[in-house]
Design goal:
single chain, 9-stranded antiparallel beta sheet, Glutathione S-transferase Yfyf (Class Pi), Chain A, domain 2, Beta-galactosidase, Chain A, domain 5, alpha+beta
Length: 679
């Protein structure tokens, strides 16, 4: 059975700055690939594709993990005719989006202005390209800078275009350059017809260097074929990737290879769906599950795997992954990888430990270097989950624990690294609001991270460390206000911030209010319940969460942010399933003995706000995290607390399922992974 036909790569891409239906892109790449391709329909640097647009500005080489993070290494490719230009407003071409082929492994676009069909199919670090114009004369293939300094040079004797771009939005990578090499088939390029653009000026030349630049290669006749590869190290490495991944293969063979890679990934979870919508939504989400994190390592001529280090621009040995924000992805992505691809999960963790070795801090949000976009160090949960599930060995566990203890106890010299407010937290047992913004979430996430350290210490037999961090893991209680029954920000002197309103967003809370933040205690549901007087009290609070209208006050943001709009757009009360912090809320009911309420809310959410359509998500999808919430929820289990080898069982929404060929039954989950009963 082929599953690629079930995938809509545009799922969630009908998004704008003010309202997210996913903020996704229809990416063509291999699973976890280093290079992706996407149609560019808008000149916006970040929101550059929308499925409703009927114009094209080319196909972008992209790595963008989120529009909020932005792209790096972006270059645009576009067929043009007669008078090729650089400026987006001058060069755009009409196209029919309903006729475009946008599959995980293959893209075909018709540029109406130049009357050209453009095809691409990817490899790990490159792609094969084909261009077919309707007419014989004055046909060009343009390579265009997206932003920042870019260099292009065409060697007419070798039919090779080489160049680099420094384009980067985030992450402060040191001396970052994305090199690229494009080798055309012999005799398909006119050796005397190459043009360059510098701004609005176009001239006959074979090389150009600067911002706002492009090179236009004139082709002989109607067709052209090429292979392309990128490198973050140099041209030789890009050529080595061409040799390893593309040489000796036809376009169709490369396409078949990419197709087989995707079919294998999609088939790792096989379902019997209840209807067409569920089937297509499930496999569209499965596609999104394997896009990120991106591999960003390369294989040199000696066969060694090496990577560019964004901390100091050195070349180091080993596999590296990037383009991931752990604040989002720890919740569902890595627990899923533990089930379906544990070997790759182990390599991902080793990559994150290499980042620690190379820059001194575990990653928080990397793209390609440390962005520090979101608070806290939720990579703690990614590493702890791998440890408790036996995915890492003891030496690696110890490396994880030592790295986690550093950021749990030491303030970093830059706010993008480590736990913000770590030393204050150690001194006071909470992060004070007069020292750090979003202090409530910093405190809650620090307590969870402490639990993760304790979990690894227990595995290593480090009893003193375990005891110390189990005690610290209860620090969430220090900011609970029994009068209001919410988690609240405290001053250094121990007093709560005055003028509290649970509907105020921001300031002390991350992308939410006290409603969305109070329940961020996945690691200690029994202790959390005790804050409300026990099971009956916490269930009453949960019912209140789901029944309170989705009011919000912009407060510290001084404007309405899209997460507010998205929460209010659906009828789930203050449970903002549109954003990751609410993902586990429905599953609390099962832990406290009311599984029927979990089943009710989860089924409603899956049916009402998820689909395979272009507007198929209730909020930012974020690197597979929301897609995998849907996958887990349909399978009938949820990784409530990464860092524990436990999953919460709930009603299975699909008729049946297999994981890696084994029949999957939530009632007998131990056949797949060691499982302990939840409370």
């Amino acid at each position: 059975m082929k599953r690629i036909p079930l995938v809509n790569t545009k799922q969630g891409s009908a998004s704008v700055h003010r309202f997210s239906n996913g903020n996704t892109l229809p990416l063509m790449q291999v699973p976890f690939g280093m290079i992706s391709f996407c149609p560019q329909t808008d000149e916006h640097l970040r929101w550059y594709y929308h499925p409703s647009h009927r114009s094209l500005m080319g196909v972008r080489i992209t790595h963008q993990p989120s529009p909020w993070i932005g792209d790096h290494g972006a270059v645009c490719i576009m067929p043009q005719k007669s008078k090729p230009v650089l400026d987006c407003e001058d060069r755009w071409s009409g196209y029919r989006p309903e006729e475009a082929v946008l599959q995980p492994h293959y893209m075909k676009l018709r540029f109406l202005r130049s009357r050209c069909d453009m095809e691409l199919t990817p490899t790990m670090r490159g792609a094969a390209l084909r261009f077919a114009f309707d007419e014989e004369d004055n046909n060009f293939i343009s390579f265009l800078s997206v932003k920042d300094r870019c260099f292009f040079s065409f060697d007419a004797d070798k039919n090779i275009l080489s160049g680099w771009t420094q384009q980067s939005c985030s992450g402060k990578p040191v001396n970052f350059r994305q090199y690229f090499v494009v080798r055309f088939d012999e005799n398909c390029i006119d050796k005397n017809g190459t043009l360059i653009s510098e701004g609005d000026k176009t001239s006959l030349c074979n090389a150009v260097d600067g911002e706002n630049t492009a090179i236009h290669l004139k082709i002989n006749g109607k067709t052209a074929s090429a292979v392309l590869a990128i490198s973050w190290i140099g041209y030789d490495m890009a050529m080595e990737s061409i040799r390893r991944e593309l040489d000796g293969k036809t376009f169709e063979e490369i396409k078949t290879d990419a197709e087989n890679l995707w079919e294998d990934r999609l088939a790792c979870v096989e379902i019997e769906a209840k209807d067409e919508k569920q089937n297509r939504t499930f496999y569209s989400c499965m596609y999104r599950a394997f896009l990120y994190p991106h591999r960003c390592d390369e294989v040199n001529a000696e066969g060694k795997t090496v990577h560019y280090c964004p901390a100091d621009a050195s070349v180091r040995e080993g596999i590296r992954y990037t383009d991931n924000g752990f604040w989002d992805t720890f919740r569902t992505c890595y627990p899923f990888y533990s089930l379906v691809c544990p070997d790759e999960y182990a390599e991902m963790c080793r990559s994150f430990l290499r980042d620690y070795d190379e820059c001194g801090w575990l990653p928080r949000w990397i793209a390609p270097g440390e962005v520090g976009c979101m608070p806290s160090t939720l990579v703690d949960a990614v590493l702890a989950d791998a440890c408790v599930k036996g995915i890492l060995n003891k030496n690696e566990m110890r490396a994880c624990m030592n790295a986690m203890i550093k950021h749990a106890t030491t303030d970093a010299p830059e706010s993008r690294y480590g736990r913000n407010g770590a030393e204050s937290y150690c001194r006071l047992g909470y992060v004070p609001y007069d020292e750090q913004k979003e202090s409530v979430n910093l405190t809650l996430d620090a307590a969870y991270g402490d639990f993760c350290i304790a979990q690894i210490a227990e595995l290593l037999g480090e009893k003193e460390i375990e005891a110390a961090y189990r005690k610290r893991a209860l620090n969430y209680k220090n900011i609970y206000d029994k009068e209001t029954t919410f988690m609240r920000a405290k001053h250094t002197d121990g007093t709560f911030r005055p003028d509290f309103n649970p509907f105020k967003w921001g300031l002390d809370y991350t992308e939410g209010s006290a409603w969305q933040s109070t329940f961020a205690v996945q690691h200690d549901p029994e202790g959390f319940a005790s804050l409300f007087g026990g099971t009956e009290g916490v269930l009453k609070k949960l019912d209140e969460l789901f029944s309170t209208p989705p009011y919000y006050i912009d407060n510290a943001y001084n404007c309405e942010i899209h997460e507010m709009t998205e929460m209010a757009a659906v009828d789930f009360g203050q449970c903002a399933i549109s954003n990751q912090p609410s993902f586990h809320f429905p599953y609390f009911f099962t832990l406290y003995g009311q599984p029927e309420k979990t089943a009710y809310w989860v089924e409603r959410m899956c049916n009402e706000v998820f689909s395979y359509e272009d507007d198929g998500f209730p909020g930012d999808e974020d690197n597979g995290s929301m897609a995998l919430w849907y996958i887990f929820s349909n399978l009938g289990l949820y990784p409530f607390c990464p860092g524990k080898a436990e999953y919460v069982k709930t009603k299975q929404l699909v008729k049946s399922a297999k994981i890696n060929g084994k029949t999957f039954d939530p009632e007998n989950f131990s056949t797949i992974i060691a499982h302990k009963d939840v409370i």
